[in-house]
Structures are given as C-alpha cells and as structure tokens.
C-alpha cells in the first residue's frame, strides 16, 4: 500500500471546538432527546459507517458542525458498548481534499487487518446547479483505533461512475461488505433517464475496484434516484435496502418526500444481478430515511435510520441543532417481510415500572401514573366490538395538543395523526394492520421530540418527530365501544 496522506486536520479541529462551544448553549433544551442519538450541536443527517469494531458499536453521521442547516458535510461520531448509552467522539472526517472539498458524503465502514476503513463519497460542486454540477467519487479513510482517521493517498479509489445507462454525476453512498474473501460495494445511482438503481462493485483489497453490474434497477414508480443502498444476507435471503427519492403517493403509501425500503431476493455474485420481489417500506411514519445496518458479534442485523425527512420543517433549528437517529432496530425476516424490533438492550433504560391489567375503556380514559415525555409504553388491546380505538400521546389539554394513534376496524388501518402535535409539520400517515386474534399489540417509545411505535411485534413501525410544548406529557386511551387493555406497562426511560 502506498503511503497515506498526513492530514493536518485543521478544519477538523476548528469544527470540533465550534461544536463543543455550541453544545454548552443548547444542552437541556426541552426537545433534546434523552435516549436517542442526536448531534452535540448543529446539523445531523444520515447514519454512516455503522459497525461493530473491537468490541464497541461505532456510528458516524452526516454532520454540518457550523450551523443547524445542511452544508459541507463532515462525519460526526458516537460509540457505544451496548447500543443504549452513546459517547460523543471527535469529528472523524472533514472535507478538504480536491476530491471531497465540498463534502464527505455518506458511506460505510469495514474492518480489515485490524483497522477500520471508511468508504465514503467525495463531493465536489463543479458549478452553481447542485443537481447537475457535481462530481461524486468514492474515497477511503483508515484508522487503527476507530477514532482518528487518515484519508488514503490512493483516493479517489473509484474515480468515476461506470459507462452505460448510468448517470455520470449522481453516484454516491457506498456500502461495503466482504463475501468469500472479496470486498463488494453497492453504490446509489440513477439511469440517464432518471430511474433509481444500485451498482455493484468488487475489490480484492478495498483499493482496486471493478464494476460488476447494475445490481437492481427501479421500474415504474420507484424513484428518480436511489440513495444510501445497503445489502445483507438475513435469515437465508439477500436484502437490498435503498432510499428512493421522489416516489409518487399510491393510496395511503409514499406520502413522504422520499421513501426508505427494501426488496428481498437472491444476488448472483457472478453476474452481479439481484432477482427480487416487490418494494416494501421499512417504516410507515413521517420521519425515517437513509437507514444503514450492521452485523454485530452476536450475528444480529441491526438498523439505524435518520429520524427526519428532507425538506420537512425542523423547529429545533431555531434552538441550534437539527436531526436525530431512530432507535437501533433488530431485523428479522418473517413471512416474506422484514420485522423490526427495538434491540433488547434498550430495556436497560427502564425505571419506575407502572403496571395495569384488564382495564376497560369506553370513551376516553387517563390512568394514574401513565404519562411522560421520555417513556416506553407496552400494551395489548383486545378490540372486542369497537370499531375505532387508540391512544393519544403528548397530550396538553390546555393547548389542545395531542399526537393520536387510531385503529379503525372497517379498513384495518392504523393512523398516526400529528396535526395537533404542537409546532412543526402536521399530517397523517397510515398503514394497513390486521388485528391478531382481535388484538393490537403496541410498543411506543416517546422521547421529547419523537415517537416510535412498533405494532404487532414490529411487523409495522411508525416513526414521527413531534414538537409539543413542555407540558404535553398526558397519555389517554379511547374507544367508541368498550375495549379491554389486557395489560399495560409504562416505564420512564433514563
Ligand atoms: C441522503 C443523502 C445522501 C448523501 C447525503 C449528503 O440523505 O442525500 O445521498 O450522501 O445525504 O448529506
């Protein structure tokens, strides 16, 4: 290997100091998450380089350290021993080389010979139009300890998008993995006529890459560009995750600006083509984008996504920060679909358990001890003969604030309504959820400015950012005819 560039990281240190100063000013702000990863200050988007390295989980993220708006991208960094408590580390990557001078865009991480390699997209603006005037290449940085990274002298290691029906400029977000002694990377792309696609590359050493094939391509309503692809083997099948930009709404689905989902199939490593089934969403809420997965030392496939959406108002920007990550979710395939559940380690956050059993609800009901703005609720509802029932979270009666989850029997829909959630964007998102034995099982994670609802064991998940007032801590249950809450547990989450 050639000598690596010795980076003075001037940029990086200035950025780090700036963020640390800002952090002192914003800590304790009422919308700051208690147990979700969020930036120390200023802007965060996509999870990057999620990995398990030397006994710890590392998570990097797209970061603009100088303002709560998107800008030239750095890589922020946190690590954790247990996926529950995260420690902030110094910023890992700063833009500055000729090939990444306008941003170190999204990418992934892999361990090789005891070192941690980051593969990311170097972004360069070649003119004023950020859709057309861009040059995106793939670059590497390496670290012995997982904290300080050095960009390789060989960069960019993939200097241009391949020939063919491949857009020359939109070429980003490499996800790298190892298979039978070779390295593979899947990279986000689009055709020259604006259909999203994922490109497969192969390398013996992470430095020399050859293009294998278009792994999968979107046809019909499948987005004009696929961002942040991910690929893994799970429960005997291959899964390609991608974030298609600009799918059009179809019925109750695809109402966010961009989607994130997956296809299940089989990758032929010789031809580089994936034969696969239909696109399915990973989350049916408002705020879920650019998910990335890793596999840990227990062989578990774990996913984290950006818990926001492009171009959706973010009221926290006026408080000096923006962006958060979802909870780490454990993925399994069941009945041809991905099921996601919060990793079990999150139970370590629980304290002050409150338990109820066999509670009848008709009309609206509040229960003593069931309230809060950073809590977990777990409940099983027997729907009995009710045609409409659900719960209200983050209720502030005086201000008329509430975030409402409603089940309607006639169409089997769960609706998450944030039209009265406080500040920020409103809207309703829906998902079709069959009752199981006439029951609905819910696990709700509330954290200051977010709700994540895992329905029927994680077969459907709905995630939303909400920005209620500080007093919005009420929780209510409602039903048009009697339902029975078979059991209900609530914990404060520390
Ligand atoms: C997805 C994305 C990526 C890109 C990054 C830039 O949210 O647009 O495609 O690498 O964000 O911050």
From TrEMBL:
<keyword id="KW-0326">Glycosidase</keyword>
<dbReference type="InterPro" id="IPR023296">
    <property type="entry name" value="Glyco_hydro_beta-prop_sf"/>
</dbReference>
<dbReference type="InterPro" id="IPR013320">
    <property type="entry name" value="ConA-like_dom_sf"/>
</dbReference>
<keyword id="KW-0378">Hydrolase</keyword>
<keyword id="KW-0119">Carbohydrate metabolism</keyword>
<dbReference type="InterPro" id="IPR051214">
    <property type="entry name" value="GH32_Enzymes"/>
</dbReference>
<dbReference type="GO" id="GO:0005737">
    <property type="term" value="C:cytoplasm"/>
</dbReference>
<keyword id="KW-0963">Cytoplasm</keyword>
<dbReference type="GO" id="GO:0005985">
    <property type="term" value="P:sucrose metabolic process"/>
</dbReference>
<comment type="pathway">
    <text>Glycan biosynthesis; sucrose metabolism.</text>
</comment>
<dbReference type="Pfam" id="PF00251">
    <property type="entry name" value="Glyco_hydro_32N"/>
</dbReference>
<comment type="similarity">
    <text>Belongs to the glycosyl hydrolase 32 family.</text>
</comment>
<feature type="domain" description="Glycosyl hydrolase family 32 C-terminal">
    <location>
        <begin position="345"/>
        <end position="491"/>
    </location>
</feature>
<feature type="domain" description="Glycosyl hydrolase family 32 N-terminal">
    <location>
        <begin position="36"/>
        <end position="342"/>
    </location>
</feature>
<dbReference type="InterPro" id="IPR013189">
    <property type="entry name" value="Glyco_hydro_32_C"/>
</dbReference>
<comment type="function">
    <text>Enables the bacterium to metabolize sucrose as a sole carbon source.</text>
</comment>
<dbReference type="InterPro" id="IPR013148">
    <property type="entry name" value="Glyco_hydro_32_N"/>
</dbReference>
<dbReference type="GO" id="GO:0004564">
    <property type="term" value="F:beta-fructofuranosidase activity"/>
</dbReference>
<dbReference type="InterPro" id="IPR018053">
    <property type="entry name" value="Glyco_hydro_32_AS"/>
</dbReference>
<dbReference type="Pfam" id="PF08244">
    <property type="entry name" value="Glyco_hydro_32C"/>
</dbReference>
<protein>
    <recommendedName>
        <fullName>Sucrose-6-phosphate hydrolase</fullName>
        <ecNumber>3.2.1.26</ecNumber>
    </recommendedName>
</protein>
<dbReference type="InterPro" id="IPR001362">
    <property type="entry name" value="Glyco_hydro_32"/>
</dbReference>
<dbReference type="InterPro" id="IPR006232">
    <property type="entry name" value="Suc6P_hydrolase"/>
</dbReference>
């Amino acid at each position: 290997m050639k000598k690596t560039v010795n980076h003075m990281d001037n940029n990086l240190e200035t950025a780090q100091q700036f963020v640390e100063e800002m952090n002192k000013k914003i800590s304790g702000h009422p919308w700051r998450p208690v147990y979700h990863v969020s930036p120390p200050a200023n802007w965060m988007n996509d999870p990057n380089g999620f990995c398990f390295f030397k006994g710890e989980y590392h998570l990097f993220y797209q970061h603009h350290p100088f303002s709560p708006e998107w800008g030239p991208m750095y890589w922020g960094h946190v690590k954790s021993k247990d996926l529950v408590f995260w420690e902030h580390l110094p910023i890992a990557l700063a833009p500055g080389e000729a090939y990444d001078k306008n941003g170190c865009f999204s990418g992934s991480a892999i361990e090789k010979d005891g070192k941690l390699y980051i593969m990311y997209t170097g972004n360069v603006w070649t003119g004023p139009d950020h859709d057309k005037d861009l040059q995106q290449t793939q670059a590497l940085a390496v670290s012995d300890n997982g904290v300080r990274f050095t960009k390789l002298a060989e960069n960019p290691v993939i200097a241009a998008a391949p020939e063919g029906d491949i857009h020359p400029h939109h070429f980003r977000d490499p996800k790298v993995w190892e298979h039978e002694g070779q390295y593979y990377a899947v990279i986000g792309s689009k055709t020259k006529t604006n259909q999203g696609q994922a490109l497969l590359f192969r390398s013996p050493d992470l430095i020399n890459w050859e293009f294998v094939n278009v792994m999968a391509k979107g046809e019909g309503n499948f987005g004009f560009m696929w961002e942040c692809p991910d690929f893994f083997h799970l429960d005997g099948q291959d899964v390609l995750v991608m974030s298609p930009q600009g799918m059009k709404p179809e019925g109750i689905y695809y109402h966010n600006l961009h989607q994130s989902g997956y296809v299940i199939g089989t990758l032929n490593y010789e031809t580089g083509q994936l034969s696969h089934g239909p696109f399915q969403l990973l989350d049916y809420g408002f705020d879920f984008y650019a998910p990335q997965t890793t596999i840990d030392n227990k062989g578990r496939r774990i996913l984290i996504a950006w818990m926001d959406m492009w171009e959706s108002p973010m009221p926290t920007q006026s408080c000096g920060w923006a962006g958060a990550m979802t909870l780490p979710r454990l993925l399994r395939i069941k009945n041809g679909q991905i099921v996601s559940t919060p990793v079990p380690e999150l139970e370590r956050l629980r304290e002050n358990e409150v338990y109820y059993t066999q509670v009848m609800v008709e009309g609206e009901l509040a229960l003593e001890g069931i309230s809060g703005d950073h809590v977990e609720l777990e409940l099983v509802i027997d729907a009995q003969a009710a045609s409409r029932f659900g719960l209200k979270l983050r209720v502030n009666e005086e201000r008329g604030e509430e975030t409402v989850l409603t089940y309607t029997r006639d169409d089997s829909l769960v609706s998450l309504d944030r039209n009265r959630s406080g500040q920020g964007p409103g809207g309703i998102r829906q998902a079709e959820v069959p009752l199981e034995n006439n029951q609905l099982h819910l696990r709700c994670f509330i954290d200051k400015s977010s709700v994540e609802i895992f329905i029927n064991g994680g077969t459907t998940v709905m995630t939303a950012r909400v920005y209620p007032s500080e007093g919005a801590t009420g929780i209510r249950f409602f039903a048009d005819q009697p339902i029975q809450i078979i059991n209900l547990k609530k914990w404060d989450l520390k």
